[in-house]
Amino acid sequence: MRKSHKKGIQIIGAVLTLLLAVYAALHFMVKVKIEEMLKGEVAKSFEVQYKDFGMNLILGNVSLSALQVKSKDTSLWINPLKINRLEIKGINFFELYQSGNFKINSVLFDAVKGDFAKQDSVSILQSSTKDFKKVISIKNLILKNSYLTQVDPKNDSVLVKFENLNVQLEDFKLDSTSLASKVPIAYKAYHLNSGPIYVNLSPFEKLEIDSLYTDQNLVIQGFHLVSKYDKVALQSKLTKERDFIDLQIPVVEIDDFQCKGYKDSSLLSIRAIELNELYLEMYRNKLLPDDYELKELLYKKIENLPFKIDIRKVDIKKGEIAYTELVNELSKAGKIYFTALNSTIENISNLNGDPIIFKNTANLMGVSPITLDWTFRENSNKNLMLVKGTVMNFNTKAINSFMMSNLRAKSSGTIQELYFTFSGNGYSSTGDMKMKYDDFKFQVLKKDRSGVNKVLTFIGNIFTNDGSNTNDSGYRFGTIETERDNTKSFFNYIWKNVSDGLVSTLTGNGEKE
Asked: Is 204 helix (H, G, I), strand (E, B) or coil?
């Protein structure tokens, strides 16, 4: 009994020793194979350096610390990519041996620092993996505490910069199908957290974000799109008219943000966006040469995007917009502004031909309630637009600072009610106006704005009805007929229609046609 027991222990010991020896041999072989791959196949395109290499064959874990990767193609990234720690856990070696596919529980890139060059990274990835037939499946792909920058190699200017970026992709998958898509990866869910973000939008504008994170929604804090130069400095940089812009949004909430492949394109899909306490200031120096570049209407810009977009709804709450325009060196710039702005935009999409609908309410010059609604692709007609608006209880003296500077005129009187509707396309429009007003008068100023041009004022008031010649309900009516200047913005188009209606209402017979 003792001999057999002793013999059994010896057999077990021998088996365990053999297993340990086999494991040690396999561990050594796999480790050598990986190191050879890093120094061989990988080294054809990249120079790889690291401090420590660890591996657990049983658990399927591999780790590298103090990793530096330098591309031999300097168009990919400029400086060596530094990774504090790379951890790969749960490699299914049986799956890898059997099919050649990678099935991994998690991959962690910790504290990545890299400067990437400006280029079409999707095309490069697709061209470099055109013969890729394997499948890479990762339960959790994690990028942690990373600082990434995209640089224009022509002048070393920063194009995009992320600080303290954290990303987690669940059920990440890369295969020949996803690589053929415009978005070459697939994932089930994502979690995102980032510190300050900088985006170079143009030679004149930049976007700065304080932070963003995902909770139930994607939340952006401290959204700031602003000109790179102040109002004075910007003018010396310009050769033609361009707005100084300062757009600030304390909090942006995005519900169900998705970016994925769609047929032969890519799709940005969002269920809803909420913009709280939006503030927008714009300034234009009209003394500069005109910008004669053709301006597409918004729906055309949406239709012509190089990708698909589908935003179901945008809500703007408690906003404020101010626009200032300088037209004469001898006078102050005129300012017009809107407070208590609340807007709803529906169906910002190029997936279908459904109407794009804007509904806006605000207080003109901080006091007079107005509404302005417009619809593109009205009644499924992709070229038709419909605009409706109202103005209530507006003392015209409130806008004199803008009129004196920009129109060389000032007015008095109260617009009790104003209603207008017009429809058209990108070339022309027609409509009508109805207005109730009291004691309307205006004065034409001298060219230097120093006083009133009495002759022009007298002649103008002869042809302008002061509001006394109305129908039984106190209204006067006018018509709208105008053509669009396609070198001007959509809002210029709206103003041309409204001003045409005002002239018709104030100077016409006032009767409804």
From this structure: coil
d(CA 419, CA 434): 5
Q: Which has more pLDDT, 442 or 109? A: 109
* For the chain, domain boundaries: 1-44, 45-200
pLDDT digits (tens, 9 = 90+) for 325-338: 998 777 788 899 99
- Residues 84, 64: Cα–Cα separation, whole Å: 8
Written as one string, the DSSP assignment of 428-473 is EEEEEEEEEEEEEEEEEBPTTSSSB-HHHHHHHHHHS--S-S--TT
Looking at the DSSP bridge assignments, the partners of residue 158 are 151
**Exposure string for 118-132, b = 16+ CB within 10 A, e = fewer:** eeeeeeeebeeeeee
CA dist 449 and 453 (Å) reads: 9
pLDDT above 90: residue 140: yes
Reported pTM: 0.85
Mean local confidence (pLDDT), 242-256:
97
* Terminal CA-CA length for the chain: 120
* Nearest by Cα to 390 from 414, 405, 373: 373
Q: Distance (Å, rounded) from C-alpha 374 to C-alpha 425?
A: 12
Helix, coil or strand: residue 387: strand
CA 202 – CA 225 distance, rounded (Å): 11
Residue 107 parent element (H or E): strand 102-117
CB neighbours of residue 490 within 10 Å: 18
Q: How far is CA 110 from the centre of its chain?
A: 28
Token pair listed for 129:
């993996």
- The phi, psi pair for 261, rounded to 5°, reads -70, 145
φ, ψ for residue 406, nearest 5 deg:
-95, -30
pLDDT tens-digit series, residues 282-329: 999 999 999 999 999 888 899 899 899 999 999 999 999 999 999 877
* Residue 497, amino acid: N
Task: Quickly count helices (H) and strands (E) in the chain.
Answer: 9, 24
- Is residue 482 scored above 80 in pLDDT? yes
